[in-house]
Design goal:
heterodimer; A: mainly alpha; 0% strand; globular; B: mainly alpha
Amino acid sequence: MLFPTTAFAVFFFVVFQIHWALAGYPRARKIFLLAASLFFYGFWSWKFAGMLLASAVINHAVAVRMDDLVRTAAPARSRRRWLVGIVAFNLGLLGFFKYTGFFFADALFPLLRPICLRLGPAAVTWLVGVQENIYPWLAQIVLPVGISFFTFQALSYVVDVHRRHVAPADSWLDFANYLAFFPQLVAGPIVRAADLVPQMERMPDRTAPIEAAPAVFLILAGLFKKTVVANWLAARLADPVFAWPERFAGPDVILGVYAYAVQIYCDFSAYSDIAIGSALLMGFRFPANFNAPYFATNLQDFWRRWHISLSSWLRDYLYVPLGGSRRGAIRTYANLLITFLLGGLWHGAAWTFLAWGAFHGMYLALERAVRGRLGLTRRHAAPAPWPLALLGRIWIFHVVCFSWILFRGGRLETVSAMFRSLAHWRTAVPELTLWSTLSVAMVTIGFVTQFLDGDRLWRAARTVAAGPAWALAAAAAAVLTGILALGPEGVAPFIYFQF
Amino acid sequence: MDGREQTTGMPLKKVWGGVVLFYAVALALNGAALHRNNEIMPYGPVRTFWLAASGPVANICTALHFDHPRAWLARTAGKALNE
């Protein structure tokens, strides 16, 4: 079920009504919320909704077991064994669905082919036989939507319980609601157990005020970014350039890359906005996931602003356990590289995602080395003068744009064709140019929507929250109508669904 | 204190009324367009269901000219943007 669809609008209306009607019956409300989330997920596949539920039950059972071992003063290694087991279970689940195809088709077989060719016809025949058996099996593996997101949530929960940062949820129902809560189930934000599990245990109180104005602002801003801006930029600029890079000249390719940079921001932050807004209307609070990422002055700053819930997850559960920056410069650079390589792989099973992660890891290591050499550590650095900060912003925007070519390319051939076309300043098909006033305006509008991130939108919402609710509701419906009238027919899936 | 902390919430009763009104106005303004979108769905029970649900709403919206604002916007700005 996609957010900007009639099906979701009807679903949300029904869930909103029943959720608040059941406010006096906490257990029934929790059961209803879980059923609603499973229905939302089951729209894609009931089979995988069952898997999600099973994952919730297993992860919670292990968390409770680890907590029991603390109470009975059992040796730390027995707790550790449970942790290793459940981490292996979660990663195994993710690995099977997401990386099996990549492992065989893109890593193992290409490696074996030249070896078998050297070994002779018998080896080649054997490899062909193996491939003929495995490819039909690989084709049957379907990637469950959102598996990367809910697996990371489950991992953060069991690791936090093991570290004793959080207590296990009061019941499996609360944990299942945390893991499967529909607004954030398929594309984040990756909300931590410490933030959401207590809310699921208590359930929102009907006497507490609801942040309706910011919720409505977030939902409308998200719908505008996705329906009007992201869809337009994808269809008119980014998709054609990435599909046929050799047909376009350098300036068009540059525009296509800018368009993709703005599209992916508008697409993904729109999902986060709608998720946060929908949850707010139901009385739940999620942390922010974006904070004007293209205004970052360095790459480290970018990662503090882009997909904040993932970057903080990678920091807390991968970079810091690897040693972070505590074990010398070389080890820090290696940790950065490992973290971002795995971060790249999290996004998708393809060499281009690994290359994207490697690029970010290496650039961050380089940036850290240069800043250390210049004595510009975070604690001691004075704010840069504005022309320098502006230059930094422009530079980092282009560094990130460059990396999006790796990210969006899909195949290494496409990536190299993109770079080749960037160097061609005369188009092969002269009538094909993407530059127009409208193109530039749409890229600019998408870029400017970053001003809504952070607290700016909340401040704006505060000013209208003082007005009557009916006026806000009627105005919101009118704005929604405008958004729908401006958008194209149909809705493309969100980019992050595939991750 | 940041913007999030300062925002004034609304009581549930007001929010509930607001949500119902929002859906009613949104349906009135978009009912006809919704029905047209349902007409181009692939044939099957889902399409039949949605058409049965949106048909009467679309008739009322059209009769009362509630569909005009969206149609005008789509004809002017929407068409310029998407064609």
